[in-house]
Each structure stands twice: as structure tokens, then as C-alpha cells.
Amino acid sequence: MSEEQTCSQIGKGWRLALVLGILAAITCGIGFKLVTLYVEDQEFLQNQGNARSLRVIQVPAHRGMITDRNGEPMAVSAPVATVWVDPKMADLKHVSLGKVARHLGTSRDRLVKKVSAKRSKRFMYLKRQVEPQVAARIRELKVPGIHVERDYKRFYPSGEVASHLLGFTNRDGKGQEGLELSYEKALHSEPGKQLVLKDLLGRTVKHIRSESAAEQGQSLQLSIDMRLQYLAYRELKAAVTAHRADAASLVMLDAKTGEVLAMANYPSYNPNNPADRVSSTIRNRAVTDLFEPGSTMKPMTVAAALMSGKYGMRSVIDTTPGHMRLKGKTIRDHRNYGELDITGIITKSSNVGSVKLALSLEPGSLHNLLQNVGIGHATGIGFPGERSGRLPYLADSQVLQRATLSYGYGLSVTPLQLAQSYLPLANDGVMTPVSLLRTDKPLPPVRVMPAPIARSIRGMMETVISIKGTGRQAAIPGYRVAGKTGTVHKVGNNGYIDDQYISLFAGIAPASNPEVVTVVMVDNPRGQEHYGGEVAAPIFSRTVGGTLRMLNIPPDNLVRPEQQVVKR
After folding, report:
1. Predicted TM-score (pTM) of this structure
2. CA distances, 302 to each of 119, 295, 339, 463 (Å)
3. Is position 295 annotated as part of the catalytic site?
4. If you ran DSSP here, which 8-state letter would residue 222 be given?
């Protein structure tokens, strides 16, 4: 072998050894780094990987359902979706971004501008409460960074019919008005949390574990019967339109349990449409609006007189000449009724007779009875904004105020309070707490007047519905009705307004075995009629008549064949 060949072989061997050495060094370096990463940096790297792939997501929970006494849904949480974006991960050049924008009701340029302005953020709502079918189309487009999650939206099947009672929630599902607000704690739901593994596009690959379970809201069963609620609302709406009134309210109570069967107001609003929620329409007039009850308080005055022992059923009061002067003021009847027995004072709605009865009693007698039947303090139903009304405590020397109190002036009530005050008359003298929730075991009643007196007053109130009374239009064919009309002047900034009225009717049916107590209030009727017997009484007749038939209450005033008059 020549010297040149030998040198060539030595050179090749040296280069091979160098390459092998370099490869060995690289291999050792890689091995050392792997060992280091596995042993020393494993926890750090694991955390970094998890931070980029593991996410804690919310598990939606629905708000508690509100139903009527028969289980009919009044407020439900309907499934919707929330569309949100991770601005850092969003692909603003994606070919389907324009379609996403159209589904969201905007343009591609506006969407790009909106997301670009939040590039430093990791979360931004694009649209909430999206319809499920629209959300499904957006999800199918698979635009990186844009996500769709399940959510719930509050829906009210009855619309404006029960809106004042139910109220509404905000976008976050928190009660803002009505029962949604007062029972927020019970209805509120708490979303759960779940750990999931996501890929680079934000798609969920695997559910790891549940961090916390979702807590669904409790259901709420009301005492309301939606059949009666619809009936009451329909009649109020028709009456307000016919009489060109400002508003009207109706409250119907179960005479035996005190449960609220219907509570309707008109005008109303649609809680499903946020644009309808203006301050002038959202208040529940049945528990917030105060008015003087007028002649609907006269049965209480007569009851106080009978309870005093000074008067009996045959006692006579001389109302001649139909008016009287007291402390410089004139108190009038519609005409001179002359001598009236106790029943006649209610039948004819005599102011003079009521005043003479009240002033002959101990000064606190009438006040105490009114207080015992719930006048002057809240009913305890816990409704937001409920007013307690006003029942002044009068000194012995305040003769004029004691006189006006006897026929329903100088105090104020809500429609619900007025209905509550009639419960003892319907329930043989015992007072049952009112309730907006269905209850199988009502709270123990409290006796506020002797049973014989309550039954006697109820019998006197039946004469109001007779041909001689002021509430003839409250009559219901086939049923005995006990009730009282009321017509009061509205109060303005400068006292009573001469041409503005509140028309009232409070009644009980059937009178022989009461099932419902109902109060109708019509605010400022501007038609040709304004008396309670002309405006409010017909609403009572139609609503309560339909109610008794709907509830299969047997008639107690059927005309026998031999009593029928045959026209020839």
C-alpha cells in the first residue's frame, strides 16, 4: 500500500470518528435533556400544557318554574344559546366569518372591528339568548375562536295576562319585579363547573371531571288559577275600553282559605318583550295603588254597631231630611230615605245613616274592627312594593273624621286589602291570611266578629243586589250574591276632583255558602257612567259568574218551575 493510500485511510477514519463523536454527543445531550425535562421540569411543563388545553366550563342550570294551582306553566326557562369569542384565538380572516355575522344580525366589518378592539382579552360576548337553531348554524361553521354555549331565557306563556303578578328577570336571569323578585332566593339557580380538555380550536375533546354540580332552581306553585286569571283580564280590558277608564284591577280570593285565585290589572305589558317594560305599566296596581274605599266600608260600620250591642236587626235610624250638618260640613244621601232599618242603611247606601251609627258608638269601635280585618297594614304576602294603606287613629274630638270614616273616606286601601277585609263576612267572622302560594293547610284563622253577625251582614248585603239596591247589575243568574257598591272622588293635588271617580264593587258568592270574594276597582271611567253599580258591578257579575260555572259550584238560587212567569 502506498503512502498516499495510507494517509487517505487515516483521514477517513478520523472523520468517521469525529462524526460518530458528534452524534454521540448529540445523543447524550438529548438524553440528558429528556431526563431533565422528565425529572426536574415535569410539573412545570405539565402545568403549562394544562393551561393551554384544560378549561373549567360552566354547566348551565335552569331557574325554577312557576306554575298555577293546577300545574299550568306561568314562567319557564326556555333553552337558548350564548355566542362568545376568544379575541386572541379568533380567525378574523376565516371564510365563514361573514355567515356568522349574518346569523348574529350584523355585518362582517362590524364584527371584525368589534373583536379587533378587544384583541388583548380572552372573552367577549357576541350575542346572548340566541335561538337554538341559529346557534346550531353558527356552531357548524367552526370558526376558530367563536364558541356557542347552552343557556336559558325566561319565558312567560301567559304574556300580559299575569305580567304584573309574575314580574320578569334580567338577561342574567335575576328577578327584577313581581314574584320573580320576591322569590329570587328560591327560584335562583347556580351553574355547575366541569373540567374539560380542549384542542387548539377550542373544541371540547374530553370531559375530565365535575368540579361542582349544577343547582337547579326550586319550582313555585301559585294559588292562581290561570283560567280565572284569563277571564278576569278579559273583562277588565273590555270594561276599560268601553268606559274609557284609565285603569282597572280585580282581586279574587278563595273565601275559605284566603288563597288568591286571580289578580289582574289593565293596562298591562308583555314581559317577553323588554320594550314593553316602562314604569307606567309594570306596577301591580292591585297591591300598590291606594284609594278611599267609600261605601264598601258601610258593612263594617253596621257590623261594629251590631257588635256594640246597642243595635239589633230591627233597630231604626231616621235619616230625614237626607242630609246633616257636622262641624260646618254637609253630609248627604242621594235623596231623603226617611226612616231606615239597619239593613236599609246598606241597601240604600245611606251616608247619613252610617254617620249616625258611627257617632253613637264608642270612639274606637269602628277603628278597631277595621284594623282587625286588615285595613291599615300590609297583607303579608311579601309582594314587592305592596302598600299598607292608611287607617288613622282618631281622637274623641275628631268628630268629622270619625263621621267620614263610617262611609269610607279618610282612609286608604289597596284592592287586595279591600278583598281581604271581606273574608270575615264570607267566612262567618273568621279572618284567614291571604296567600299567593297554593296551600293545602292554611294558617289558623282568627275570629274578628261573631258568626251570627257576619251572617247577618252577608244577608243585608244580598239586598244590595236586589231591585231596590245599588248593585243590581252584579246579579248572577242561579246564584245568590252579597256585595256592596262604592263610588268615590279621586284625590288630586288640591283635594277632591269633581269629575274624576273610582268605581268599586266588593262581593261574595254564592251567598249561602261563600266560595269566592272579589273586588273590582275601575280608575277614572270617563264615559256616561261612573257609579260603582254601573261600571264595576257588571265586571263582577261576568267574572264571578264564569268562575262559579268553571269551578262547578252548584247554584243556590234556582227558580222553581212554579215560580216562573210565563209570558203570553
Report:
1. 0.82
2. 77, 12, 16, 14
3. yes
4. B
